[in-house]
Amino acid sequence: xxxxxIECCILKTSSANGVWxxxxxxxxxxxxxxxxxxxxxxxxxxxxxxxxWLLEKGTQPFAFIFYDLPKLLLILLGIYLIGxxxxxxxxxxxxxxxxxxxxxxxxxxxxxxxxxGYLLLVLIAVPSMIALLKGVTHVSCPNHLILxxxxxxxxxxxxxxxxxxxxxxxxxxxxxxGFSLYGLAFLPTLHQYRYRIFEIVTVIxxxxxxxxxxxxxxxxxxxxxxxxxxxxxxxxxATLFFKYPVANxxxxxxxxxxxxxxxxxxxxSKTQS
Length: 273
Fold this sequence. Notes:
The protein has one domain (3-48, 55-246). Helices cover 69% and strands 1% of the residues. It is built from twelve helices and two strands.
C-alpha cells in the first residue's frame, strides 16, 4: 500500500480521537454495574455444580491450547516485530541495504515502522497495565470465595483494596493478552479489515477468558472490563501514534495548496502581456 493511501486511512481513523475517553467511561460504568449486582455470582454458578468447577485447573490438553499456546504465539509475535525493527534500523543506516532489501522488506511485513512500533507497544502496554491494576485492586477469584468452596468472603473492589487481600484477579490478565491484538484494528495499513479484525480478536480474547472462568479463576466482569480497558488503551495509543503526524502533514499540504504555483503564475503573466 502506498504512502498516500496509508495517510488517507489514518486521516479517516483519527477523526474520532475522543473515542478512547468514551471507552474509559464505558469501562467505569460496566465495573460499577457488576459491582452493585449479583450478575457475576449468577454467571459463575453456571460453571460450578455439585461442589466442582466444569474444568479442573491445569487439565491437558486444554491448558496448552487455551493458556500456554496463546502466550507463546504472542511472545513470538513480539520477538518478530522487534526483529523487523532492528533490521529496518540497520537498513536505514546503509543505503545499499535499503535498495537491496526493499522487496524482501515488503514481503516480511507490509506495515510501516511507525505501525510496527505502535503494535509492539500495545502488545506490551495492555497486559502490563492490566497486571498493574490487578496488584492494586486485590479482588478475589471465584474459586477463592466461600460461595464456591473457598475460604474468603465476597467483597467489593473497595473492600478488597482496604483489606489488602493477597488475591490478584481483577481485571483478567490472561484474556488481556489476547485483547491486545485490538491494536491491529487501528493500523492504517489494515484499515479496510478493521471490523473483521475486531470480531476475530474479540473471539480470541473471550475464548481465553472463558477458559479461565470454567475453573473459577475469573468472574465474567473480570474479562469484560479487561476487554474494555484493552480497547481504551489501544485506541488512546493509536491517537498518539497516528493523529499528530498526519495533522501536521495535512496542515503542510493545506499551506502548500494556498501558495500560487510558479509555473501557472508565469503562464498567466505571459497571457496577460
